[in-house]
C-alpha cells in the first residue's frame, strides 16, 4: 500500500492510497489470486476434500497427481488472467490452453507461453474468445477457468471472485484501521470490482466507502447496464480501448448483481485518462514513490486525478463528495505487462489529455 502524500496535497484531498499489484508472484498483476484459488477448489472438489486440507505440498505430490491424472485448464484472456491460470497449472503439474482476443500484445502471449501453456491470439473479440474456450472445454473434457459468469456457469467464477478478495484482506491490514471514504475500482466484466465491492460492504456495513466503478468509454458494458436500469445486461458489440484488461463487451452476471446493490457511481472514461494515470504514477511529485502501472492498472488513479484537478468536473466532484477530507483508495491492478506500449504512453506522450 502506497500513500501519495504530495499528490494528495496537490489535489486537495486527505489521502490518495494506491495498492500496487505489480509484484504479485512475479506475474505483474493481481489476476492470479482468482485463478489459482479457483483451480485449487476444482482439485479439492475432484478429490472429495476441502481445500484447507490440501496444502501446496499435498496438491503437488505424486499421490495427488496420480489420483487426478493430468488435467487441462482452458481460459480466454487479454493477458493477466491467462498468465495466472498458466502459472498455476504449471506449478500444479497440469496443462493449460489460453485463447487471446485479436489485438493482444505479443509480449503478453509470450509470457503465457513461457509458463508452458498452449496459447494463441485469435481473430475474435474477447467475449467470443470466451465462447470458444467454453466450447472447447465442453467438447474436449477440459476445465474452463473463466473470470466471468453466465447462467449455468457460476461456480468457478464465484471462486475466482473469492480469490480476489485476498486483496481486500491485505488492504484492511495495510491501512491499519484507516477507513477510506472512497474506493475507485476499474472494471472489465466486473468480477474484480464485484468481489471488492462485496468485501467492502461486508467489512464496513453502513459505513462502507463510496464505491465508484471506472470503465473505458469504448467498453462500458456495466455503465450501459446501470444507465438502462431495466433488469437486463447490456453489451458493447465491438469494445475498443488501450486498457486491454478492461476491453470486455459483456458483464459478468454475478459481478453485476453485487455492483447493482453496492456501487454508488459508474464512470466511463476515454483512453487519455488511463494514460494520464500511467504518467502520474510513473513520474510522481517529489517525495512520492513511483508506481509502474499499465493501462488497465492506472485507469482508476487517472480518473480520480482528472476529477480533482479539472474545473469542468466540479459538479461531479460534489456529487461524489470528493472534498478535502477524502481518503481515496485505488488499486493498480497491473504493472507494465506490455512494455512497448507503456513506453509509448509514458515516454512518448501517446494519448495525451487535452
Automatic annotation (TrEMBL):
An example molecular function term from Gene Ontology annotations: diaminopropionate ammonia-lyase activity
An example Gene Ontology biological process: alpha-amino acid metabolic process
Entry keyword annotation includes Lyase: yes
Top-level taxon of the source organism: Bacteria
UniProt keyword annotations, A-Z: Lyase, Pyridoxal phosphate
Cofactor(s) listed: pyridoxal 5'-phosphate
SUPFAM superfamilies, sorted: Tryptophan synthase beta subunit-like PLP-dependent enzymes (SSF53686)
InterPro entries cross-referenced by the UniProt entry: DiNH2opropionate_NH3_lyase (IPR010081), TrpB-like_PALP (IPR001926), TrpB-like_PALP_sf (IPR036052)
Span of domain Tryptophan synthase beta chain-like PALP: 2-315
Tagged with keyword Iron: no
The name this protein goes by in its record: Diaminopropionate ammonia-lyase
Amino acid at each position: 500500500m502506497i500513500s501519495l502524500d504530495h499528490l494528495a496535497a496537490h489535489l486537495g484531498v486527505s489521502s490518495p492510497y494506491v495498492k500496487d499489484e505489480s509484484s504479485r508472484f512475479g506475474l505483474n498483476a493481481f489476476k492470479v489470486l482468482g485463478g489459482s484459488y479457483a483451480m485449487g477448489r476444482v482439485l479439492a472438489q475432484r478429490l472429495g476434500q476441502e481445500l484447507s486440507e490440501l496444502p501446496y505440498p499435498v496438491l503437488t505430490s505424486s499421490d495427488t497427481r496420480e489420483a487426478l491424472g493430468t488435467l487441462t485448464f482452458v481460459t480466454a484472456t487479454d493477458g493477466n488472467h491467462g498468465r495466472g491460470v498458466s502459472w498455476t497449472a504449471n506449478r500444479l503439474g497440469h496443462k493449460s490452453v489460453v485463447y487471446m482476443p485479436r489485438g493482444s500484445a505479443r509480449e503478453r502471449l509470450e509470457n503465457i507461453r513461457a509458463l508452458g501453456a498452449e496459447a494463441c491470439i485469435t481473430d475474435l473479440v474477447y467475449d467470443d474468445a470466451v465462447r470458444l474456450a467454453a466450447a472447447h472445454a465442453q467438447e474436449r473434457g477440459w476445465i474452463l477457468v473463466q473470470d466471468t459468469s453466465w447462467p449455468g456457469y457460476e461456480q468457478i467464477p464465484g471462486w475466482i471472485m473469492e480469490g480476489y478478495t485476498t486483496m481486500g484482506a491485505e488492504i484492511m491490514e495495510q491501512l491499519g484501521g484507516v477507513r477510506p471514504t472512497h474506493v475507485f475500482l476499474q472494471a472489465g466484466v466486473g468480477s474484480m470490482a464485484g468481489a471488492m465491492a462485496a468485501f467492502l460492504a461486508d467489512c464496513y456495513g453502513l459505513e462502507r466507502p463510496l464505491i465508484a466503478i471506472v470503465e473505458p468509454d469504448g467498453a462500458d458494458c456495466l455503465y450501459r447496464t446501470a444507465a438502462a436500469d431495466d433488469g437486463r445486461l447490456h453489451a458493447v458489440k465491438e469494445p475498443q480501448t488501450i486498457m486491454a484488461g478492461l476491453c470486455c463487451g459483456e458483464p459478468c452476471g454475478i459481478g453485476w448483481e453485487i455492483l447493482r446493490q453496492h456501487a454508488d457511481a459508474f464512470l466511463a472514461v476515454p483512453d487519455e485518462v488511463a494514460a494520464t494515470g500511467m504518467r502520474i504514477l510513473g513520474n510522481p511529485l517529489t517525495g512520492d514513490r513511483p508506481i509502474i502501472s499499465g493501462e488497465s492498472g492506472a485507469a482508476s488513479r487517472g480518473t480520480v486525478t482528472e476529477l480533482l484537478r479539472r474545473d469542468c468536473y466540479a459538479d461531479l466532484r460534489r456529487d461524489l463528495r470528493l472534498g478535502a477530507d477524502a481518503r481515496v483508495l485505488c488499486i493498480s491492478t497491473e504493472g507494465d505487462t506490455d512494455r512497448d506500449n507503456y513506453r509509448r504512453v509514458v515516454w512518448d506522450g501517446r494519448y495525451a489529455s487535452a
